Amino acid sequence: MRWDALFNDLESQLQAATALEQESEIRERTRAEQARLTLVQRLLGQVGRPLGVSTRGGRSLEGILTNVGSEWIAVAVEGRSVIVPLSSLHLLRGMGRGAGQPLSGVGARLGLGSALRVLSRDRAYVTLWTVSPPSRQAGIIDRVGADFVDVGTTGVDREGRQAQGRDVLTVPFASLDAVDAAAD
Q1: pLDDT at 96 over 90
Q2: Total domains, the chain
């Protein structure tokens, strides 16, 4: 009888140690898996959900995450689409626990230039917000290069009226904080 109690006690200790070891291994594997997760993968798990976005240029947006590219996100905000380069993201609020999946195929090739080329093709009226110093320029995208965008703008004269001339501004992608475009 005494031996049975001893063996039962040893068996309980072994089961407890095994369970503890398994839990520790699961936690370690989870941490390792999370360490490989990229921001794009994390954002892919949030598409269609409300998201708060703060940018390096001081913009604060609240809307629905609609698209994720390899270098940008699109957020639907009050009837317009706002494209935010990943490099301009400062803080994200409201991210659920979903991890998404790896960006692959066409999505992996959709850089910031691809998103801006769609706006250029559609001749969409946009507002470009820049980072440092924070400023905004409105107009129509004329050209999108590998790392810059040309925007045709109409100026304002000294009395605050629309000027007759048209100016073309070149903005490097690195200076972009966000791009607002009216929704179709």
Answers
A1: no
A2: 2
DSSP code for 123: T
d(C-alpha 165, C-alpha 174), whole Å: 28
CB < 8 Å & 24+ apart, contacts of 117-120: 117/144, 119/83, 119/179, 119/181, 120/144
Q: Where in the sequence is the domain holding 85, given as residue range(s)?
A: 66-89+104-182
Average pLDDT over residues 149-159: 70
For 77-88, what is each residue's pLDDT tens digit? 998 999 999 999
**Residue type at 10?**
L
For residues 44 and 47, what is the distance between their CA atoms, to the nearest angstrom? 6
Mean pLDDT of 153-158: 58
Domain identity same for 72 and 32: no
| 42 located within any domain | no
CA 146 to chain centre: 20
What sign for the dihedral angle of Cα 144, 145, 149, 152? negative
pLDDT for residue 98 is more than 80? no
76 and 157 housed in the same domain: yes
